[in-house]
Amino acid sequence: MREIMYRDAIREALAEEMRRDPRVFLMGEDVAEHGGNFLVTTGLYEEFGEGRIFDTPLSESALVGAGVGAAMMGMRPVVEVMFADFVTIAMDAIVNHAAKVYYMSGGEVTAPLVIRLAAYGAGRRSGAHHSQSIESYLTNVPGLTIVMPSTAYDAKGLLKTAIRSPNPVLFLEHKMLYAKKGEVPEGEYLLPIGVADVKRQGSNLTLVAFGRMVDVSLAAAKTLEIQGVSAEVIDLRSLQPLDEDTILSSVKKTGRLVIVHEAPVRGGFGGEVAAVVAEKALGYLDAPIKRVGAPWVPVPFSPPLEDAYVPQEADVVKAAMAVMAS
User: Fold this and answer.
1) Comparing 3-183 with 197-325, is the CATH topology the same?
2) For residues 294 and 311, is the Cβ–Cβ distance under 8 A?
3) Do 76 and 165 meet the contact criterion of CB atoms below 8 Å apart?
4) Is 8 within 8 Å of 152 (Cβ atoms)?
5) What DSSP state is assigned to residue 37?
6) How many whole angstroms separate alpha carbon 153 and alpha carbon 164?
7) What per-residue string of b and e applies to 126-154 under the rule 16 or more CB within 10 Å gives b?
8) What is the pTM of this model?
9) Which CATH number fits domain 3-183: 3.50.50.60, 3.40.50.1970, 3.40.50.970, 3.30.2350.10?
10) Within 10 A of 244 (CB to CB), how many other CB atoms are there?
11) Distance of CA 231 to CAs 171, 207, 242, 277, Å?
């Protein structure tokens, strides 16, 4: 099995889908000749030309709006928003048009586009406007699919499925994962959206995470094992649809749950996971549910403060041991 970087897996998915379906095209800020701000689209312009991959003005509302319109007219656009933070500028097109058109037209019109939110999350000392984890803005919008892969393998398989989906898909890529290597098989494969992956089996405690926090949780699970705690790590992979069955099955086995995400704890998606477990598996819990996330402040620019802001392995271990002691 070959090893490639997360960014290369995304590029492969884009290239394969563009070769397969002439309706697929890519647009965004600096995605063409420059190859993208994080070099994800390098080489695609040379293969597909300006008719299939092109740069847009620096206006997220315009480029996302154009993508929604193209999707409604039968195309399969992939729109890149250079930094996920700026999805707020395009919320009207996403929330009031892409997400609703199928319902408001009685199923006669759809908007099958992928919006790549590249990139989200902290870690590069980029400050408050280029470092946020914004998934919870979007998970309360019916009609949207939200995908957040943590590995190169998942990124390729899920992006290919997203491009073929009949629904609008928000595909979130963490900037600190782009250079991460992982095993990706040669050739085409698809992964189902809405199916979580158990990245590590365990029996004493369930750790639920997504995106970059999957790696943090896996590192914490190794440390916990040394301390005699067997932690199961679940990678949600998509937040909408949410694989409740995998979460509930694990909690019923372990009796304890810690949810880890990079966004602030208050209002974060961990609250939804906790609610699902509280409503459907409360009797199986041997301890209160704990959430690990960022504090209630914007992402700091200062390196030491940013490191303190982002949940670390030690934070997950501390929460897990507190749950085990309850």
Assistant:
1) yes
2) yes
3) no
4) yes
5) T
6) 17
7) beeebbbbbbbbbeebebbbbbbbbbbbb
8) 0.96
9) 3.40.50.970
10) 16
11) 28, 7, 21, 17
CATH classification of 197-325, choosing from 1.10.3470.10, 3.90.190.20, 3.30.950.10, 3.40.50.920? 3.40.50.920
Q: Give me 140's structure tokens.
A: 């309360």
Contact 154, 202 (CB under 8 A): no
Choosing from 97, 130, 174, 261, the catalytic residue is: 130
Q: What amino acid is encoded at 218 in this protein?
A: L
Q: What is the pLDDT of residues 207-262, one digit of tens each?
A: 999 999 999 999 999 999 999 999 999 999 999 999 999 999 999 999 999 999 99
CB 188 within 8 A of CB 161: no
How many helices (H) and strands (E) are present in the chain, helices listed first? 12, 14
For residue 136, give the amino acid letter: S
Rg (CA), the chain: 20
Q: How far apart are CA 133 and CA 122, in angstroms?
A: 8
Query: What contacts 23, CB < 8 A, 6 or more positions away?
Result: 74, 75, 76
Task: Report pLDDT digits (tens) over 126-171.
Answer: 999 999 999 999 999 999 999 999 999 999 999 999 999 999 999 9
**130 in active site:** yes
- Domain ranges in the chain? 3-183, 197-325
Asked if residues 80 and 118 have their Cβ atoms less than 8 Å apart, the reply is yes
